């Protein structure tokens, strides 16, 4: 009986081992993880999954972040990148291939190392300079936290490290990990999407000049958009029908209206309205007040800012917003301007309250994890009650205020510290996203003769739009790049006095992506990975207790389990083996 039981035991043991080997062999060809985190840290969004399922081409991704001497933070970023790519590879049925590499690993000398680094920079990969601690001191090290996505011979560089001003390193790293999925998926979309989206930038009403929108146009072109400037001032009702098609191509996916200074005629407003009714997207960047820094260059160093009549109030009111004729100030965060110190005759930088640094919304993917956005002479926006969904994208800090027209702007006020008892209007909206089915501003307002005329040519007015979106910004300077006296173009968001670059470029690009992309890939930026930091005070006072508990408890459980297992085993076999 004892021999039979032993034989059976060995057979069972062999079967268990065989099953384990077989399961591992099958699992080596499959990849599947179960995400048990509350924030879905290890899961791809539906929009990314849809993109990967529709992708017909194979993509090869090279990650230049590898090596044994990577600092812990970069090692965490590297591992997070690998997690995302594994998921992408699984969802795409192997169409996403990737490789980690240390670009300078095989460099035999310093000249060869520099040559490799310059070659990577020429591909659009931006390095990061680090001071790494060694046994004999500190060493300067150049690291490329970058990814190069290649599809059918075309490549797209991706910077996976977020350089955020004012954020602690841990939060900047955390935000970099959050953005990984969107950045890589967006690069794949740019390289595989066969549709070319067209963007029209309106001219003809005193809008920002092409040279002032040069950097914006270049950014959009680099991101595979077709950008065209259209002068519409001389356009009138055409015999082909009254539509936006008489201004520029009907297939325009997005219209940008940046800083008009002259009022729109009713027929022009009607064209804009019908463009929206047909599903067209508009990015409005409108100045409600006539205020510029140049106006301060007079003997009194002051001017009175008055409202601008653009004749757009009624159409925007119908859609759900009203741009107020005022100037917002922010007592907490503002960009500086130089003032000549009378004693030293040297320019000193003072905060200029009329140049607020607007805060992007952390609750929406357009503004998620972005630095402040630089504005000049912005106005507040009221949200009008209707059926349209409204999301505030940009606002002042909790210490904001609005000065109604006529607003006195005086340079001498720059040296006075803001008195916070006057800054009691928190979170003043300066940028709003509108989403839904818009009602025409001309519903039940058109004359019968006009309706008959355009209906005869197949352009019957629509009274309600299909599902659509638009964004309204209360300052055109958010889209404007500075131009020097010599004609030099400064980057979008670059503030020339403090030499800082703010998040205008990323914010505007996110706005365009959100308005145009039908797959809503930008929503992947809304993923939140919580930073669960230890309580520093409790770590000091209770550290030894918890370390001991983590060491002793697992060992104790193993010992208890061993005793119970041994007891049950002895009891079973003792009871089954009878003495002769």
Label this structure with key terms:
ten-stranded mixed beta sheet; globular; 11 helices; alpha+beta; Rossmann fold; single chain; Glutaredoxin; four-stranded mixed beta sheet; 2 domains; 580 residues
Summarize, please.
By secondary structure, this protein is an alpha+beta fold.
What does this structure look like?
This protein is of the alpha+beta class. It folds into 2 domains: 34-191, 3-Layer(aba) Sandwich (Glutaredoxin); 195-526, Rossmann fold (3-Layer(aba) Sandwich), CATH 3.40.50. The chain has 11 helices and 25 strands. Strands 7, 8, 9, 10, 15, 16, 17, 19, 22 and 23 form a 10-stranded mixed beta sheet that branches. A 4-stranded mixed beta sheet has the order 2-1-5-6, covered by helices on one side. Strands 11-12-21 form a 3-stranded antiparallel beta sheet, with no helix packed on it. Helix 3 packs parallel to helix 5 (169-192).
């Amino acid at each position: 009986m004892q021999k039979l039981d032993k034989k059976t035991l060995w057979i069972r043991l062999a079967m268990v081992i065989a099953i384990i080997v077989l399961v591992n062999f099958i699992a080596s060809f499959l990849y599947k993880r179960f995400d048990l985190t509350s924030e879905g840290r290890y899961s791809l969004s539906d929009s990314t999954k849809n993109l990967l399922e529709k992708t017909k081409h194979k993509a090869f991704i090279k990650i230049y972040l590898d090596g044994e001497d990577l600092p812990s933070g970069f090692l965490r970023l590297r591992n997070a990148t690998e997690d995302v790519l594994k998921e992408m590879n699984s969802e795409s049925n192997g169409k996403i291939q990737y490789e980690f590499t240390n670009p300078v690993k095989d460099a035999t000398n310093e000249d060869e190392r520099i040559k490799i680094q310059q070659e990577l920079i020429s591909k659009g990969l931006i390095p990061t300079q680090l001071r790494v601690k060694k046994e004999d001191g500190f060493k300067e090290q150049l690291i490329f936290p970058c990814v190069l996505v290649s599809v059918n011979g075309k490549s797209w560089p991706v910077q996976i490290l977020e350089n955020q001003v004012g954020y602690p390193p841990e939060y900047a790293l955390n935000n970099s990990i959050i953005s990984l999925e969107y950045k890589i998926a967006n690069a794949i979309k740019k390289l595989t999407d066969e549709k070319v989206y067209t963007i029209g930038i309106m001219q003809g009403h005193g809008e920002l000049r092409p040279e002032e929108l040069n950097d914006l146009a270049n950014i959009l072109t680099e991101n595979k958009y077709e950008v065209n400037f259209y002068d519409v001032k001389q356009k009138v009702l055409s015999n082909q029908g009254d539509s936006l098609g008489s201004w520029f191509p009907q297939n325009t996916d997005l219209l940008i209206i940046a800083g008009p200074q002259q009022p729109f005629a009713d027929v022009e407003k009607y064209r804009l309205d019908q463009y929206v009714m047909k599903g067209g997207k508009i990015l409005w960047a409108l100045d409600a007040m006539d205020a510029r820094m140049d106006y301060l260059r007079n003997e009194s160093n002051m001017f009175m800012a008055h409202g601008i009549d653009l004749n757009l109030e009624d159409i925007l009111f119908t859609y759900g917003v009203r741009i107020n004729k005022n100037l917002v100030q922010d007592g907490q965060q503002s960009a500086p301007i130089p003032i000549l110190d009378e004693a030293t005759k040297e320019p000193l930088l003072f905060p200029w309250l009329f140049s607020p640094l607007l805060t992007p919304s952390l609750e929406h993917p357009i503004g998620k994890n972005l630095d402040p956005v630089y504005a000049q002479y912005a106005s507040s926006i009221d949200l009008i009650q209707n059926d349209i969904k409204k999301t505030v994208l940009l606002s002042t800090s909790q210490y904001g205020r609005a000065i109604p027209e006529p607003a006195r702007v005086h340079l001498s006020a720059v040296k006075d510290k803001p008195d916070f008892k006057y800054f009691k209007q928190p979170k003043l909206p300066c940028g709003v996203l509108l989403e839904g089915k818009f009602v025409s501003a001309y519903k039940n307002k058109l004359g019968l003769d006009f309706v008959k005329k355009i209906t005869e040519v197949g352009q019957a007015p629509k009274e309600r739009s299909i599902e659509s979106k638009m964004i309204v910004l209360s300052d055109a300077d958010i889209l404007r790049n500075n131009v020097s006296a010599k004609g030099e173009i400064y980057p979008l968001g670059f503030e020339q006095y403090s030499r800082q670059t703010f998040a205008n470029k990323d914010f505007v690009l996110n706005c365009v992506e959100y308005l145009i992309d039908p797959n809503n890939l930008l929503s992947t930026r809304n993923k939140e990975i919580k930073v669960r930091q230890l309580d520093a005070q409790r770590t000091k006072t209770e550290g030894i207790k918890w370390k001991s508990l983590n060491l002793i408890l697992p060992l104790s459980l193993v010992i208890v389990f061993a005793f119970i297992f041994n007891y049950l085993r002895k009891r079973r076999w003792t009871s089954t083996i009878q003495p002769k």
